[in-house]
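Student: Hello, beginner here. Can you help me understand the protein record under this note? Any guidance would be welcome.
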Amino acid sequence: MTKKVIPFLTLIVVIVGALMYSDSGTVEANQSVEDIEKELDEVQQERENVSSEIDSLQEQIRELEGQQDETEDKLDRIENEIEQAELEVRQKELDIEETETEIYLLEAEIQELENEIQELEAEIEELEEEISELEDEITETELRIEQREAVLTDRLRTLQRNGGSVSYMEVILGSSDFGDFVSRAAAVSKVMDQDQSIINQHFDDKQFLEEAKDTVEANKEQVEESKQTVESNKETVEANKANLEDKRQTLVAQKGELDQLIAGLDERKQEEQIVLSNLQEDQEELEKYQVSLSEEQEILDAREQSLKNQKQSAESNPANTQAGGSGQFIAPMSGYLTSPFKPPHRPGHAGVDMGNRDNPTTPVYAAATGEVYRVVSGCVVGNSGCGGGYGNVVYMTHYIDGVAYDTVYAHLSSVHVSVGDTVQQGQQIGNMGNTGSSTGPHLHFEIHRGGSWNNSKSNAVDPLNYINP
């Protein structure tokens, strides 16, 4: 829609501009009232033509507004999709956080169980070593008990053969002398002590044997319980490791899904930016159409009124028609050339730039006698789009030797003329400046020959070929 309308609109602006700005408000020295009336008829005819075109453009505006509504609906849908996608991304992030927490807990539990397994296995090893040592001691104790019981059995048998007792007094009284008595008494005492010691050791070993066997049984039960716990923990560890692997695979899948959701969200946001850009372009184009239509109508009205004024002036004072000038242009300011007409690196530069370091607000003069047909003022430094990039600018039209010319004076710091003013060659119209699309104080000056100024600069000529040296 936009690509079809813009060229057509540009063509209308160019045609209307050419009809309106050529001869804008000026007539040749001998122009008659009949010529002005003829121009008025032509303007009226052009008004009817433009009115028809305006109707067509208004229809296109309505279509553009409809297109704009569709774009806004699409934007609403995309915004809803973005909101939904953002919720899905957040939910997936929460799922990932939950999975990562489960993985962390499983890893911690596995580590705890493996540590417990190691402690239990070390404890089992210690218990088994203790059991082994106790079993060795039990074996040795049992052997001692067995041997001691054999000795005691022999002594009992001896006592039984001797009447059931040993006469320690006979042994003592049977001594031959006192020394022998002492020896025999000591021997009897020793034998009695040894018998008592053997009996005590025997009962001690019996008690130790019972306690050792109980300890061995308890340790074996503890070992068995520990082994069962170890086996149970190992099974739990294996199950947790399998679960952990599943969680890790789930995490990888969730992260992949998150990446896809984020990519989809980015696509939606990029689409949103494109739609927003299209919506803005539509809006700007709509505003451009509306401005163009308004300007067209205003320009037609202004030119028609100017022609009526000129007709009235010619009828009342035929000798008071505007002169066309000397046949030459003069430099619009004192200074020097800073950029020529359409240099290789700036083929769209349809004029020349002039500067003056000594005075950044050097006066600017009309290059030829003519009439002002357009003025833009109020632009400030830094507003590059003001005046269509020209900043503060004056447009004038001239008739020189029967040829129509337009001149343009751009980037002015101030403007001293108004639309409709008749300006004499060399009269100050403003001051050099730095407004609009400008990087420093200078004057941008254009001359258009044989037709009015237009956006395509189709009538632009090199001013240096027309300025009187």
